[in-house]
Write a structure and sequence with these properties.
- By secondary structure, the chain is an alpha/beta fold.
- It contains eight helices and twelve strands.
- Helices cover 38% and strands 19% of the residues.
- InterPro entries: CheY-like_superfamily, OmpR/PhoB-type_DNA-bd, Sig_transdc_resp-reg_receiver, WalR-like, WH-like_DNA-bd_sf.
- This is Response regulator transcription factor.
- Keywords: DNA-binding, Phosphoprotein, Transcription, Transcription regulation.
- It comes from Streptomyces prunicolor.
Length: 249
Amino acid sequence: MQQSYEKAGKVDGAVGARVLVVDDDPTVAEVVSGYLDRAGYVVERAADGPEALARADAHWPDLVVLDLMLPGMDGLEVCRRMRGRGPVPVIMLTARGDEDDRILGLEVGADDYVTKPFSPRELVLRVESVLRRSRSPVGSAAPLSAGGLAVDPAARRASKDGAELTLTHREFDLLTFFLRHPGRVYGREDLMREVWGWDFGDLSTVTVHVRRLRGKVEDDPGRPRFIQTVWGIGYRFDPTGTEGTDGHA
């Protein structure tokens, strides 16, 4: 990991955003916090899960950079508990190379992950991307609806048959994108570029978020009516809610 802060430039729109950095390695926490501070963020630090939850309760963050391997309460449990208290974007840090660990982080609601060792400058760019997407609706702010599903991008609220849905920031953006582009097939690379704003990355991120979103908007996620798989290509949103043949991602 680079130890110099010289290349960490200002990030547009970052000034005033509060980022909570949770890592028990003081060197990692110091370097990450230094880069984020230079980029214009208000940074708080915590060394373990209980301290992170206490700091979040005292000053709710705009985003959390969260280490997976924490002493006592691990990052997965911290993420679950934070999700239970309110919506907040989470970027998970992990030293593990096992894909299952990364997927677990996404399954509990992390918006992104970065594998150690990483470039602090790249992490700053990921933070900026996640915050920008969480604060800005995908496309126009006009309300959208189809088949009993509805989203209000300006208010960042979604519902199914009139009942409000509890979605992460990425899930909300993904549903909004699907509603805005019904009937068209998008590959995972397309969705990563259009919804995540990334030109590269681990495509399992898209797969996991589609699966999680299906679990919240479909009556039977195993036989999805709305978010359908087009084998060998990607996904298509069917506004008529015609039952698909298979729900595997």
